[in-house]
Amino acid sequence: MRRAAPLLFLLAALSGCKGPEKAPTLSNEERITALGLHRDPLPAADNPVLALKEPLEAFLEATRDDFQTDAKLPTFLNFQVGPETRKRCWALQQTLRETIARGPGRIPDPDPSGFNVYMLIQAQRANAALAATSLADKNPTGAAFHLALTFEVADYLLASDPLLLSYSFTVYLKKKTFDDLLALYQASPSPELHRHISTICRNSRFRRSLLESALKAEARFNLEICRDFPNYIKEQHKAYGALLFSFQKPPLSECTIEEILALPYDPEASISRSLDDAEDAIRWLHTGEPLSRCPKRLLTPGTPRPLEYYQTAPNGLAEIFDDCGVGRPYLNALVTHQILEAHIDTSLAWLAAEADGVSVTSLEVLVPGYLARIPADPCDGKPLRCIPEKRLIYSIGTDLEDNDGLSLFDPEAAEDDTVDRVLIVPEIKPQAGITMPPSPRPRSVPLSTPPGS
After folding, report:
1. Contact 178/423 with Cβ under 8 angstroms?
2. How far is Cα 202 from Cα 205, in angstroms, rounded to an integer?
3. I need a surface site. Which of 14, 150, 347, 406 has the fewest CB within 10 A?
4. DSSP E strands: which ranges in 62-108?
5. Contact status, residue 232 vs residue 225, Cβ threshold 8 Å
């Protein structure tokens, strides 16, 4: 028997009613409407999101020759301040802040994911240039607030229309921006800069409303696939010259596209399962419970089975969809951001303790002086793990297995190993060339010097 939609009980609770004795069965279309998974009309031509595109492109084109491509350097150190850069940086900063202040619009169709990611890449590079300008003025605090503009632009774009690629990429860019902030602090450590970075990170957390919007946007993406999965596979095959990336491992990699398309498929049953997943994910998000209590199918996809199994299943093609995890990368990104926030809190506390001369031999040393408590691992609810001698903080990840801090990028990790989510706390080694002037309060920090001043 199909479970009653949790949304009905939520609505009843909010209205103060006890709810009906027996919840009515909703059709898929009614559930789509109740969950808010329908598409709103596109906005008017003065969409503020589009206002970002032209100034970003013009700025990056004008400063193209100022960028280096040294992968070993943080992004903001890959930019050399040219003679016209300061004036352009000031103008771009004003444009970014004015656009964000206008409030979100709607990412335009077609190809909204591509547009969103393109804008994020452009904004991240531009903010690195803004930070480089502040560093040229020997103002690391201003550089930190410039780097944080990436957080603001990312949240602005997510509010405009969160989608699979843009949400996943936003999480990646937030991690990269935090790495840049740590690199900035590593180059010019001071209590003032640490305080400003802590404030920036605290104010840049994803709001739950944005996370729920991301889940709903991805549910819409899944529904579009579920309605015509055979054609989705055909288009992917035509675009990339191969089956879906998820089908590249045995035994499905040994099948032809004709064999897969011949499998039985029930769109309505697939839509119903996708709606169940969306409801479960949103309910889990609101509980704040660790992932270990989240429905298992939402965390990791099943293992692809032999073609013969899917040929005899009533909805074989849909089961491939589930087993390959085609529609669940967004949830993985949601988990990544929650782990990142726990990592950020802990690593900043670690650095503050070391600045006071405390040797961090375990995370317990940070409590209560620098942390009220050790942040919980969002995956199993237990305190984050730590390997002090390696300066390593880690979460066990969605497989819920503790791999002793083995990361995806560890040379010892084999291709089929399960890995943990790891953050390395940098050692503070001040570098010459960047000095820290007396810093005003964050609200009055001169982010860059206006032209002619």
Report:
1. no
2. 6
3. 14
4. none
5. yes
Instruction: Please give the chain's pLDDT, 453 residues, in tens.
Output: 334 444 443 334 434 445 545 556 889 988 998 888 876 655 555 677 777 778 888 888 888 777 777 777 777 777 777 767 777 877 888 888 888 888 777 666 545 556 666 777 778 778 888 888 888 788 888 888 888 888 887 777 777 765 545 666 777 778 888 888 888 888 888 888 898 888 888 887 777 777 787 778 778 878 888 888 888 777 766 655 445 555 666 777 778 888 888 889 999 998 998 888 888 888 887 887 887 787 766 666 667 788 899 899 999 888 877 777 665 656 666 777 788 888 888 999 999 999 888 999 999 999 999 999 999 998 889 999 999 999 999 999 877 889 888 887 776 765 555 678 888 888 876 544 444 333 333 333 334 444 444
Tokens 């011949």 belong to which residue?
262
Q: Which residues contact 167 (CB under 8 A, 6 or more apart)?
A: 158, 214, 217, 218, 330, 333, 334
Q: Which among 339, 343, 347, 380 is positioned nearest to 366, based on CA atoms?
A: 347
Of 64, 60, 53, nearest to 115 by C-alpha is 53
Residues paired with 423 in a beta bridge: 393
Alpha-carbon torsion angle 335, 339, 341, 346, nearest 10:
170
Q: Do residues 132 and 80 make contact, with C-beta atoms less than 8 angstroms apart?
A: yes
> Which residues neighbour 33 within 8 Å (Cβ) at sequence distance 6 or greater?
none
392, 422 in Cβ contact below 8 A? yes
Which residue do the tokens 């930070």 mark? Answer: 131
Contacts of 362 (CB under 8 A, 6+ apart): 386, 388
| pTM of model > 0.85 | no
**Can you read off the two tokens belonging to residue 442?**
């964050």
First to last CA, the chain: 72
- Three-state DSSP at 96 gives helix
Neighbouring-strand partners of residue 355: none
Omega before 368 cis (within 30°)?
Answer: yes
Q: CA 405, CA 383: separation in Å to the nearest integer?
A: 14
How far apart CA 388 and CA 364 sit, in angstroms, is 11
Q: Which two tokens stand for residue 214?
A: 């991301």
Residue 221's H or E segment, with its range, is helix 208-227
